[in-house]
Every structure is written in structure tokens, then in C-alpha cells.
């Protein structure tokens, strides 16, 4: 069903209560509710879906017009079974029966194709997609493709809690190499839900199916006992919409497929043929399509147009590598294979040259490991030897602490290797070696320090920490406070939240100056309107360590309108590039660390789907401005929310400070302003005469501007 004027995605995702349930209180599919929840978590998701949907439409149209038969593709599947009761812990046979159903339905090998009405048989499609149970897990070890967890959670819903171990579920395997299916107890009469694809890889991509609707044998609830719930939800994962276009019964929705009839709403049970709506006679609704809501026994077809959309996802975008995955290959364990997994210590900057190394050893073989010889050295020096003994089961990992080794100050490389498992030659020596880079720091470099990012980045001694190997701090010539370059992190295109990226400065000796202070210029603007969604924001945090980076203390943390450096409106849906006037100088008192000669400072960005964040002109000194005075960041406002008055506490600021105060609404209009406010006092501002809503207190002084949000009740 394809209209001349395609509906926007936001219009498509309108769902009425009558569409999500029927008289039996069954929620056949919650993909729409789940999509709405995902968009509430990620304000950019709608545009990402729309862009990818355009790619899918174009590819599908080319495929249909060329009448090309695509080769068969194989997609590895992992099933994460989360259960609380024995009944929910369904058998392997029931799980495997569902994979059989998928392979039949997606290749039109299902035995009930004879039930497809004659007018629809010519447009029935074969996807040539085969689903196989993964035989190799992400570590390279053999697997059945099924993992199980006994949980304490009574039932799950559409908030993806089942997709994380931390919330009672199981974490996804790499979604670019495995198609993830979660099976669990779903509440509220829900049968299942799926995640639509976008142009960005998602670690929650896949389907969630109720345990009693999965497969066609075992613990099942009629009439949804033939495995068609999974066929329906996997269709959504490959970008198929509900056949009626999710418009209620308006006959105006679209599933983007020209060969599915227009129909008024979903069908339940098994309607007779033809079942006419929306003037779609003589053949009526295609209620036997997997993307309708009819009973499992009634479903028996995809159309050629739907197949083209699914193949567009399989061959384009972030999930196109699924067909190239080796996860259904063979994994034949050797009998004796000791594998060095990595170095826990030494890594990064350390304070002492006396080192007690810690390594990870895995038994990659099938025989239990009882002994391994570990040799290790620094900078390819004289090797030391350590004979480990114990009992390490197949595919298990253990931590080994080695005897102490010493080295001098400077940059070094630590090497370790395993050999002679169980006093026999290792049958796979290719994984016997590991190494790590580290630096023994004596006394940090002297200050003052200045970094304007005009030369090589990162500069000598500085380090980038990019745990997810995605977007991170980088040099840019698009904007700068001074000069021609700064650094920024591209949060606008960073399709993850909670990811940490750090720019770590060289170690410093702060004993060489009095009253040390860190200052920097920052530029930031939100993507989301803070009035509508005040909780969305990326975060900038500055942390300080006095033990060579082993532990850190937070010295500065800003987000939302407190981090924003632009006047109202505080957001833009375009990628933020600051102008010369959209920078703010922030400073941090480092006096608590003045007695340490080896101090590490790092700038941390924490993503939240928002906008670009810039830094420039980082300085550490003890002579400029008000370094011995607390910065404006020490100001506190209360009560918040406020009613008739707002206290602005300047007692943490020196009495010689001259502070300007302005209160603005979300449009940038000034509702209160005073100047020449001296530090060391508590100011009380009357707020009874301003309207309810969100406001910003702007505090200005010689060390920049601080913005503090408050709500007027």
C-alpha cells in the first residue's frame, strides 16, 4: 500500500488504543510504542530513520524495476533466553523450531502457501534469506547460539531492559555480526516488539518475543503458536511497516509498498476472503500478510515489494555485514592452546618504576590447563620467567600476578608470552603474545602551561581515551577562540549516549607556582529545546588525579543550560559551530593540588545525542586574574524551584569581586538585571512578579559567564 504523497515518519507512528489491543487483551506488536520510546531517548533518531528509509525506498525501487533475483544470504542468529520460572525456560527444541519457521516464511517454503488467495499469489515474494544459529561466539569459542539467564525480573516491557545484563536481561552480541533475538516473559499481554533500523549501528537492534509465542512446539499460547510473531517482528527489523500504515482506520496510511492493498486498520482472527475496506475491492485486505495482526494460522506471505525493502536493509547500511559474518562457521578447539588476553598493569602513566605486572590468561583449548610458562620483559630486555600452575577449564580466563620488575622514568613497552601448556608445545602460538605501553612519570612538567591547539594534536605528553573507538576529541579549523584551530567532539553525529571520551593533559608539577589555576574556553549549544526536554544534554567534566591517573576527583561538571555558551535560544537543530562571541572562559581553582608534583588533568565528554562541544586555550598558571579566589562556579542559587523569591549566594566569592546578575527567560528576554553586586554577600531577588517557567541566572565577572537554570513555580 503506497500513497502518492508519502506520510512522514512521525505521522506513521501514531497509534490508537484500538490498534494495540483487542477483546482478548492481547498486544500483538509494540513496535510503534517502542519506536516512540527510542525517539524520546534520542531526539535525532527520527531524522536518522527518515534518512535511512529514503535509502531503502530508492534501493527497493531499483531492485523491483530491474527484476533482479538476489542471491541467498545467510544471517547468524543468537537467542538470549531470560527466564524466571521453569515454564519460561523453554527448550532448545522450541527455540530451533522458531528458526525453522523463519527460514520457511522468509523463503516461501512454508507448507501453508496453498492458503494464499489466488489473486495474491503472483505478487508473493521470496526473500532468499536464511537464518542460522551462531556456532562461534564473539570470542571465537564454539556456541549453540543460545544463552540463558535466570533473572529476578517478573516481566519485561518495551524499555529494552531485557537487552542489558545490568537490568536483569542479557547484553547483545555484536549487532553487525549477529542478529539478536531476546526471549522472555513480556507483560501486559504483549507478544513481541522489534527495533527499526537506522543509518547508525545500534547495540539494541533485534527483536523481543514472549517465551510462549516463540516457535511452533513446546510452551505456547494459541492462536499465536506457529512462530509467526517472530516472522512479523523480524520483518520490522528489516524495515517493514504494518500493512495498514498505522493510521487507525483512516485509509490514509502507507507501508511504503505498492503491491499491498490499502486497508482500514489491522485484522484479527482469520477474516473471510475477500474482506473489503477502503474501497479496496475486489480482493480486499491482505490479512494473510505477515505484517498484519491476524492469527498465526492465517499468515502465509510477504509481497515482492516487502521483500525488496528487506533486501535493501540487508545490502545497505550498518547491518549489511550480517551476511558476511563468519559466526555460523566452524570453531574447532585445539587440545592445548594457552591464549594471552591482555595486560591489566602496567598501562598508561604510572608513578613508580617498580612494577608488579598483572596479565590475563585464557584457556583457548579443550583440555584443562594445569601449567603454563609465562615469560615477560620491558623494552625487549632480559626476559624473566614465571611458572603458573592451577586448574583452568576450557575457555575460562584467569588473572595472573607476576613477580616484580623494575625500570626507569620514561616511555616503555611491557611484553608477555605464554608457552608450554601442560608442558607440551602450544598448538596455536599465534595468540601467545601480548604487550602494553606505559610511561613511568617522575616529576611532572613545570607550569605555566598553555595549549591553543594550533600545532600537532594531541601534543607531546597528551593522550586521547576513546573506549568505543568511535567519535572522540579532534582538532578542527571550523572554529577557534584564538588562532585558527580548537578541538571539539562531534556529538551532533554521535549516535550513542553515555559514551565517555577524554583528552588527558601531560602530567604537571604544581609545586612550582603559587595558587595554581586551570582556565579554558568552552563553546556549546544544545540540540534539544531545554524547555520541552530539560534533561537532554551532553556533559563536560574536568577531573584531577594526584596518583598518576590511578584515581581521579571531579573538579568541574556542567551540562544543559549551565554548559551552554550562547544566548537564548539555547539550542539549534543544526550542527553547532560557534561564532567569536559564543565562547566562555571557565576556570578551576587547583590550589588543593598545589603540593603535588605529579598532577594529571583530563577533560571528559559524556554524550547524550545532543550537539558539538568545543575547547580552546587551556592554561595552567598562578599569576593571572583571580587565581586565589573561587570562580563564579562557586555561586549557589536556592530555592529551586522558586516561588516568591530566589536567593543568590555570593558568600563563596571574595568581597572584592564585582558581579553582574541577569535573569532571562527561554527567549532571551531579560526579566531582572543588577550590576555592581559585590562578592561575600547573600542576595535576595523578588520573583513573585515573573511568570511560571524555566529561567536562567547569568552571573558575569572577569572570569567569564556562568549560567544557572531555575524554575519559577
Overall pLDDT = 89
- Strand % is 25-35%
* Overall tally of structural domains: 4
Major beta sheet, specifics?
6 strands, mixed
**Would you report the number of β strands?**
36
Termini gap: 49 Å
Structural class label: mainly beta
**CATH-level-4 superfamily name of the largest domain:** Collagenase (Catalytic Domain)
**CATH domain fold name of the largest domain:** Collagenase (Catalytic Domain)
As residue ranges, the low-confidence spans are 3-24, 623-630
The CATH class assignment of the largest domain is Alpha Beta
Judging by the overall fold, what is the CATH architecture of the largest domain? 3-Layer(aba) Sandwich
The number of helical runs is 7
Helix residue percentage = 10-25%
Anisotropy-based shape = flat
Radius of gyration: 31 Å
Amino acid at each position: 500500500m503506497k500513497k502518492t504523497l508519502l506520510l512522514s515518519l512521525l505521522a506513521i507512528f501514531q497509534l490508537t488504543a484500538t490498534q494495540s489491543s483487542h477483546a482478548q487483551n492481547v498486544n500483538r506488536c509494540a513496535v510503534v510504542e517502542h519506536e516512540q520510546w527510542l525517539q524520546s531517548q534520542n531526539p535525532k533518531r527520527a531524522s536518522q530513520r527518515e534518512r535511512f528509509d529514503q535509502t531503502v525506498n530508492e534501493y527497493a525501487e531499483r531492485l523491483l524495476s530491474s527484476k533482479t533475483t538476489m542471491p541467498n544470504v545467510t544471517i547468524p542468529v543468537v537467542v538470549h533466553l531470560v527466564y524466571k520460572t521453569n515454564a519460561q525456560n523453554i527448550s532448545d527444541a522450541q527455540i530451533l523450531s522458531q528458526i525453522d519457521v523463519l527460514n520457511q516464511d522468509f523463503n516461501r517454503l512454508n507448507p501453508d502457501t496453498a492458503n494464499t488467495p489466488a489473486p495474491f499469489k503472483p505478487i508473493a515474494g521470496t526473500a532468499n534469506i536464511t537464518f542460522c544459529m551462531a556456532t562461534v561466539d564473539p570470542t571465537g569459542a564454539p556456541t549453540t547460539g543460545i544463552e540463558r539467564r535466570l533473572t529476578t525480573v517478573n516481566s519485561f516491557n518495551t524499555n529494552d531492559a531485557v537487552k542489558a545484563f545490568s537490568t536483569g536481561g542479557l547484553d547483545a552480541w555484536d549487532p553487525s555480526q549477529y542478529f539478536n533475538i531476546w526471549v522472555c516473559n513480556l507483560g501486559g499481554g504483549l507478544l513481541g516488539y522489534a527495533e527499526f533500523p537506522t543509518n547508525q549501528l545500534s547495540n539494541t537492534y533485534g527483536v523481543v518475543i514472549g517465551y510462549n509465542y516463540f516457535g511452533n512446539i513446546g510452551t505456547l499460547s494459541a492462536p499465536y503458536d506457529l512462530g509467526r510473531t517472530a516472522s512479523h517482528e523480524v520483518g520490522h527489523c528489516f524495515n517493514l511497516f504494518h500493512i495498514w500504515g498505522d493510521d487507525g482506520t483512516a485509509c490514509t496510511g502507507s507501508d511504503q509498498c505498492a503491491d499491498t492493498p490499502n486497508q482500514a486498520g489491522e485484522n484479527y482472527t482469520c477474516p473471510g476472503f475477500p474482506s473489503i475496506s477502503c474501497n479496496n475491492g475486489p480482493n480486499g485486505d491482505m490479512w494473510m500478510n505477515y505484517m498484519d495482526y491476524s492469527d498465526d494460522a492465517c499468515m502465509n506471505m510477504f509481497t515482492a515489494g516487502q521483500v525488496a525493502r528487506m533486501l535493501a536493509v540487508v545490502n545497505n547500511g550498518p547491518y549489511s555485514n550480517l551476511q558476511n559474518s563468519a559466526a555460523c562457521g566452524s570453531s574447532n578447539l585445539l587440545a592445548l592452546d594457552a591464549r594471552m588476553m591482555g595486560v591489566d598493569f602496567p598501562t598508561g602513566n604510572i608513578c613508580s618504576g617498580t612494577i608488579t605486572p598483572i596479565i590475563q590468561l585464557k584457556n583457548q583449548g579443550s583440555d584443562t590447563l594445569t601449567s603454563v610458562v609465562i615469560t615477560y620483559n620491558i623494552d625487549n630486555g632480559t626476559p624473566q620467567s614465571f611458572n603458573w600452575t592451577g586448574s583452568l577449564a576450557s575457555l575460562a580466563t584467569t588473572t595472573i600476578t607476576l613477580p616484580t620488575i623494575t625500570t626507569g622514568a620514561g616511555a616503555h613497552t611491557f611484553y608477555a608470552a605464554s608457552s608450554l601448556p601442560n608442558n607440551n608445545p602450544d598448538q596455536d602460538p599465534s595468540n601467545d603474545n601480548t604487550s602494553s605501553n606505559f610511561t613511568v612519570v617522575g616529576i611532572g612538567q613545570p607550569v605555566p602551561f598553555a595549549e591553543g591547539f594550533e600545532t600537532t594534536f594531541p601534543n607531546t605528553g597528551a593522550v586521547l581515551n576513546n573506549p568505543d573507538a568511535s567519535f572522540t576529541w579532534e582538532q578542527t579549523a571550523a572554529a577557534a577562540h584564538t588562532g585558527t584551530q580548537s578541538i571539539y567532539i562531534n556529538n551532533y553525529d554521535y549516535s550513542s549516549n553515555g559514551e565517555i571520551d577524554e583528552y588527558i593533559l601531560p602530567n604537571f608539577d604544581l609545586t612550582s607556582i603559587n595558587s595554581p589555576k586551570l582556565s579554558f574556553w568552552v563553546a556549546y549549544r544544545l540540540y534539544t529545546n531545554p524547555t520541552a526536554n530539560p534533561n537532554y544534554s551532553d556533559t563536560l567534566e574536568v577531573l584531577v588525579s594526584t596518583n598518576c591517573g590511578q584515581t581521579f576527583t571531579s573538579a568541574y561538571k556542567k551540562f544543559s543550560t549551565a554548559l551552554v555558551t550562547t544566548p537564548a535560544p539555547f539550542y539549534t537543530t543544526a550542527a553547532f559551530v560557534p561564532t567569536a562571541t559564543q565562547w566562555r572562559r571557565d576556570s578551576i581553582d587547583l590550589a588543593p593540588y598545589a603540593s603535588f608534583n605529579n598532577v594529571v588533568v583530563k577533560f571528559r565528554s559524556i554524550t547524550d545525542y545532543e550537539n558539538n562541544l568545543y575547547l580552546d586555550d587551556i592554561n595552567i598558571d598562578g599569576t593571572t586574574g583571580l587565581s586565589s579566589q573561587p570562580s563564579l562556579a562557586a555561586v549557589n542559587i536556592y530555592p529551586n524551584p522558586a516561588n516568591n523569591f530566589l536567593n543568590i549566594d555570593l558568600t563563596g566569592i571574595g568581597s572584592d569581586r564585582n558581579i553582574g546578575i541577569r535573569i532571562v527567560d527561554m527567549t532571551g528576554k531579560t526579566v531582572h538585571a543588577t550590576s555592581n553586586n559585590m562578592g561575600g554577600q547573600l542576595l535576595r531577588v523578588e520573583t513573585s512578579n515573573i511568570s511560571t517557567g524555566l529561567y536562567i541566572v547569568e552571573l558575569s565577572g572577569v572570569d567569564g559567564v556562568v549560567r544557572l537554570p531555575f524554575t519559577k513555580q
